# Entry
Amino acid sequence: MQTRSFLFLLLFTAALAKEVYADTLKVLTTGAFKQVVVAVAADYEKRTGHHVDIQNDTAGAISKRVAAGESFDVLVLPPTALNTFAASGVVERGSVIALAKVAIGVAVKVGTTPPALRSVDDFKNIISQAHKVALINPASGGSSGIYLEGLFQRMGLTEVVNAKAVWVNGGLVAEKITTGEADVAIHQISEILPVAGVVLVGPLPDAIQNFTTYAAALHANAANKETARSFLQSFSTAKGNALIQEKGMMALN
# Structure
């Protein structure tokens, strides 16, 4: 009986020690890359026992939070923004690594006959025939919203789009289809695929497509830098690349 009690005490102490010494990593990520971070973090937590606290927002909003001094261990943003933070000393120089790129796509409700999307004219027809179009509000700093705002200006569609736009300040734009607020959503493909009840019609035609590249870096003064570094390396493994592709992106490592 004493032997069993002693063994139980050893196991309990070992489990408690693991919890006590496990690190918690804070990851700030853009919404488009969130699904990848969640998938990689689940595998990482299972393997290491460390915890990953994931917080997401638009690229613009995340950049403002970091510029205002918010702490983090790992930061996911477009490379230009990360290089700016590296130059200012916020992120560790040399830790910036490109991870993936993602295209913009069009979504409609499941059960709807998908419209043609093979040409620029097809895209124009989708816009003109839609009752309401859900889009990221460019004012919120979302990458796709900023690009689309310029695209609509170049195509002479600004007034048409503004008359039927459902502006979303962050999050999954395609959810506006499931709530009945829009019948078409235009967003980065990685943020369309997670939404149940919608179907991806396809990416924008090549002539008007825009890819956003995402990279990650470590905070220059991260409390758990080596743990953060090992987490960051998880994205460049074969499994990490597979998860990136599964979530609608193209791996760059």
Remarks:
- The CA atoms of residues 87 and 190 lie 29 Å apart.
